[in-house]
Design goal:
It is a single chain. This protein has 349 residues and is mainly alpha-helical. It has 14 helices and no strands. It has helices at 21-30, 40-45, 51-62, 79-99, 105-112, 124-131, 134-148, 153-156, 164-177, 187-197, 213-227, 232-259, 264-295, 300-326. Helix 12 (232-259) packs antiparallel against helix 13 and helix 12 (232-259) packs parallel to helix 14. The model is unreliable at 343-349 (pLDDT under 50).
Length: 349
């Protein structure tokens, strides 16, 4: 089933609902462009991984992507908003640096190459492959859409900051991510097709209001790393984590889609990633990471940090989802509308 990635309104997605004081003041300021904004002290008192801070940061980052309906494009570079964004970023980054274990790059990369055990209880893809039901796959896809409908976009920001082998390898992978010249094969488009098979809304940013803080933090991480040249090494670490772990996880998710009768486009998205990311893994390790560190060896600790931060936030989201699903309850504020009859009866038991 083909689907268009569309905005929720003529000028972009609608502004989301606030989750607290920080996000409320940011969203309110964007509407008329006036009023108070949170102070550094107020931001420092907020939980760095909490939904309020993460939503405020998400909204400010989205001004660099597709913006929002009714918000002037010039707000992207409004000094007052950039000042607030800087304070939010500092709080988030400070928490990550405190919580990510200190590891060398070789140890961090080796950890990515070690597959989680099927029975260790921490892997979403193992769970969905083995016992996931269609409603859980739909929730997973809805939340992951905040990333996959902009797949590869934030990583493209690093290209002008690289050179030589790292730049060539990164560009080659991004070319594949963006469909190798075919609009219908752009990976974000393939995910929209997957969502259509699962009878989900395909509009860009549609599910932000149901996304937990754990999802917002994971999406914000790649924007944070992509927008700052000083964090280019960490962005490469993030990219390596995504590409190295994608192929085996995608294989399990493809099997979950087949087992639950999700549909051919749902299967295709993950089947495509099994093949593409197996190749990307080799390129990212031998050309992108190795090429970067040959040129800039002082970035080794940053690459390891990017790997560690991505793993930390991935694990937080996995814990959130699996806790809810094992209790047979929705991971969303309210369950998604029921799906069509194609779902096998056994997936509802």
């Amino acid at each position: 089933m083909k689907a268009e990635i569309a905005a929720a309104g003529p000028g972009g997605p609608r502004l989301p609902r606030a989750r607290g004081y920080l996000s409320d003041t940011v969203i309110s300021w964007l509407r008329p462009g006036e009023g108070p904004l949170p102070t550094r002290e107020e931001i420092q008192r907020a939980g760095p991984y909490g939904a309020d801070l993460q939503l405020a940061l998400y909204v400010l980052y989205e001004l660099h992507y597709q913006g929002f309906d009714g918000v002037d494009d010039d707000r992207e570079w409004a000094p007052a908003l950039l000042s607030v964004r800087r304070c939010l970023e500092e709080a988030f980054l400070r928490a990550l640096r405190a919580d990510v274990p200190a590891r060398g790059m070789q140890e961090a990369m080796a950890g990515l190459l070690t597959e989680p055990a099927a029975d260790d209880g921490s892997s979403v893809s193992h769970y969905l492959k083995r016992e996931g039901r269609l409603w859980q796959l739909r929730e997973y896809a809805a939340l992951r859409s905040l990333y996959h409908l902009k797949e590869a976009d934030p990583h493209a920001w690093v290209l002008p900051r690289l050179r030589g082998r790292a730049k060539a390898g990164m560009a080659a992978i991004e070319f594949d991510e963006f469909g190798a010249g075919r609009a219908e094969d752009i990976h974000a488009q393939l995910f929209a097709d997957l969502m259509a098979d699962l009878t989900l809304e395909t509009a860009y940013g549609h599910y932000v209001d149901v996304a937990p803080a754990e999802t917002l933090a994971l999406v914000n991480l790649m924007s944070l790393l992509g927008l700052h040249r000083s964090l280019r090494g960490a962005l490469i670490g993030h990219f390596a984590t995504v590409e190295v772990t994608s192929s085996p996880g995608s294989r399990r998710l493809a099997e979950a889609m087949r087992r639950t009768g999700a549909g051919p486009a749902a299967e295709r998205f993950y089947d495509e990633h099994v093949e593409a990311d197996a190749v990307h893994e080799q390129v990212v390790r031998t050309e992108v990471v190795d090429g970067l560190l040959k040129d800039e060896p002082d970035l080794e600790a940053d690459v390891a940090f990017g790997i560690g931060a991505t793993t930390l936030l991935d694990d937080r989201l996995a814990g959130y989802l699996l806790t809810a699903w094992r209790e047979n309850r929705s991971a969303l504020p309210a369950p998604l509308p029921h799906v069509r009859a194609r779902e096998p009866a056994r997936s509802e038991t």
